[in-house]
Design a protein that fits this description.
single chain; alpha/beta; Spore Coat Polysaccharide Biosynthesis Protein SpsA, Chain A; 2 domains; about 25% strand; globular
């Protein structure tokens, strides 16, 4: 099985630690490894380094190579320009059509945490067995929901189609992105909804065929690029053609046009958390909402439900904090309520063209 880890985002919701030059997936946000390194590390020992690929931006290729030195250099695919997830997934599908068209492939992301690593690997391997037996399938891997999240996508699934290795494969019914609170609460009660992680297992041939049918213009561009894979012209054609592709999300380009009968869903508890934003990181790493989360030289007094990360040597003191975020770096101090995280991205965008643009 081939594993593709996507590591191309900028991650402004984790600003000021995550920045254009060093996005969140390459930073040690918490612990001794970057989330990219954790994403690769949790696949061991069931997947070899030769089975791993990373899709990222051209500017980050050297960072990926430094952080994952055991990965073959030509398995790091650097997009010359970000065109959203639609073209990015298609580029990998086209490359793997040249490498191993009928071998299972899994799409994963670099900015997540997965606590149940062994169970997660079992899911990937079992899903790989299923698409080997039935290459006309795509299998979505969902997390059993822990709460009624309005910040995540959801998968609606039906009854069990079959089981394998004590895993239930269920009928796929549809997606819902960021539902309203009342709807999310209904999903929790329904017992047939999972958080959509953006993880799936299929074959390059099946995915490539979906691009040809559902996104023909993108397919034609990608075909021009990938027919030059492992030739001296690949980089040149990639630079010329890729920036001309439509900027569109994978869901809109492919999944919205997918025949539900070709998809299956696995909903399991893998201890998954999206740590793409500060409040999500706190939820992932604390045992209760009341608990504080701190990193670095920090002292909190009479405080609750707050996160304080200090990346400097000076002492950061918080007194009577309630649902606050305090992030201290050598050149920026961010203080805001947890509920204001969506405004961080908009604020960073406003810095463009100002004397503080270098801080983005």
């Amino acid at each position: 099985m081939k594993i593709i880890i996507f590591a191309g985002g900028v991650g402004t919701r984790l600003w000021p630690v995550s920045r254009k030059n060093t996005p969140k997936q390459f930073e040690k946000i918490y612990g001794d490894y970057s989330t990219l390194q954790l994403a690769a590390k949790r696949l061991q020992p069931d997947f070899s380094w030769d089975d791993l690929y990373v899709s990222t931006g051209k500017a980050y290729v050297d960072i990926v190579a430094k952080q994952l030195p055991k990965m073959p250099k030509d398995h790091i695919i650097g997009e010359p320009e970000m065109r959203d997830v639609g073209p990015a997934v298609g580029l990998i599908a086209g490359i793997l059509m040249k490498e191993s068209p009928d071998e299972p492939m899994a799409i994963l992301w670099s900015d997540h945490l997965v606590a149940e690593e062994e169970h997660f690997r079992k899911i990937l391997l079992t899903a790989g067995e299923v698409v080997t037996d039935d290459p006309g399938k795509i299998i979505f891997v969902g997390q059993k929901p822990r709460f009624a999240s309005v910040n995540l996508g959801w998968i609606d699934y039906g009854g069990e189609v079959f089981s394998r290795n004590d895993l239930s494969f269920r009928a796929f019914l549809g997606f819902k992105y960021k539902p309203e609170t009342e709807t999310a609460e209904q999903y929790i009660k329904s017992g047939h909804h999972a958080w959509n992680l953006g993880y799936f297992v299929t074959t390059p041939r099946f995915l490539w065929s979906r691009y040809k049918t559902s996104a023909p213009e993108i397919f034609n561009g990608l075909q021009k690029i990938t027919e030059n894979w492992k030739t001296g012209n690949f980089s040149t054609v990639l630079e010329e053609v890729y920036p001309t592709l439509e900027k569109i999300h994978f869901d809109n380009a492919i999944l919205e046009k997918l025949d539900p009968s070709s998809a299956l869903v696995i909903s399991e508890n893998i201890g998954w958390s999206d740590i793409g934003a500060w409040e999500a990181l706190k939820e992932a790493l604390t045992n209760s909402e009341e608990e504080n989360l701190v990193k670095g030289n920090v002292m909190l007094e009479d405080s609750r439900d707050s996160l304080a990360f200090n990346y400097t040597n000076q002492l950061c003191v918080g007194i009577d904090l309630d649902k606050l975020l305090v992030i201290t770096t050598p050149d920026v101090i961010l203080v805001c309520p947890k509920t204001s995280v969506p405004k961080i991205k908009k604020f960073v965008e406003k810095l463009a063209g100002t004397p503080h643009e270098h801080l983005t």
